[in-house]
Amino acid sequence: MFEVYSRVGHSCVGQNGCLTIGGAINFLQDCSMFQLETEPVFTDYFRKNNLSMVLAFRQVDYLRFPKFGEKIRVCSWVYDCNPAYGYRNTVLYDEYGKACILSYCIGVFVNADSGRVTHIPRDIAAQIQLEPRLDMDYQPRKIVLPEIEGEKFPVLTVKRYDLDRLNHMNNLRYVTIAQEYLPLSCQPSRVRVEYKIPAKYGDILVPKRFSLEKGNYLVTLENETGKLFAAVEFTVL
Questions:
Q1: What is the pLDDT along the chain (237 residues), one digit of tens a residue?
Q2: 21-36 vs 171-179: helix crossing angle, rounded to 10
């Protein structure tokens, strides 16, 4: 398990002074990447074989949004790993040790140049330190798309400031872009994201919004030919 101690700062809160959906994911994402670097056998194998891990799915459950200035602790660990996928929990706690945000994600191993899925040897996967799986409500990794046509919004272009160190659009940006198409009255407490094709600099994003049951929403980001970059589901629990 890897831990990061921090405080909720000005750059990650919204108009209400509380941690935003995106601000929370920033904390989760950074902690998980730092934890990955604590696995030397794993990282050495990746470097020597030109591999990387890309996110296939993320679920985040928001129990409470900490306020500006609050002290927080973020913990991340791997609970399962096989030659094709890694499974991880990351939790954000307040200073009293009470969980505020729960998450699990699934990463897939790929060739860093081609982006093609690559299996790692079982003996490498077996050396990853595993921790018990977090007790949370695990929703399926596949997001079912409605058969009806969604409401289209003006297209967007991936900018340089959207990119991460793999030259893909940062995983967080899919969520913050999709969130813009929610009604102001929608205050989701769960976000699920299924990542399909990594968006790159200059790609055109076509946003579509679908109204679901119980005031929930699904936003898809597609390319101009209809291929899906990501589907982001916002749920009010």
A1: 999 999 999 999 999 999 999 999 999 999 999 998 898 888 899 899 999 889 999 999 999 999 999 999 999 999 999 999 999 999 999 999 999 999 999 999 998 888 889 999 999 999 899 999 999 999 999 999 999 999 999 999 999 999 998 899 999 999 999 999 999 888 999 999 999 999 999 999 999 999 999 889 999 999 999 999 999 999 998
A2: 170
- The token pair that represents 235 in the structure block: 């749920």
Q: Which fold has domain 151-235?
A: Thiol Ester Dehydrase; Chain A (3.10.129)
Distance CA 193, CA 59 (A): 6
Nearest to 8 by CA among 91, 60, 65: 65
What are the structural domain ranges in the chain? 2-125, 151-235
- Exposed, middle or buried: residue 9 (CB in 10 Å: 0-12, 13-18, 19+)? exposed
For the question of whether the overall pTM of this predicted structure is more than 0.85, the answer is yes
Q: What is the CATH class of 2-125?
A: alpha beta
HEC-encoded secondary structure of 106-125: EEEEEECCCCCECCCCHHHH
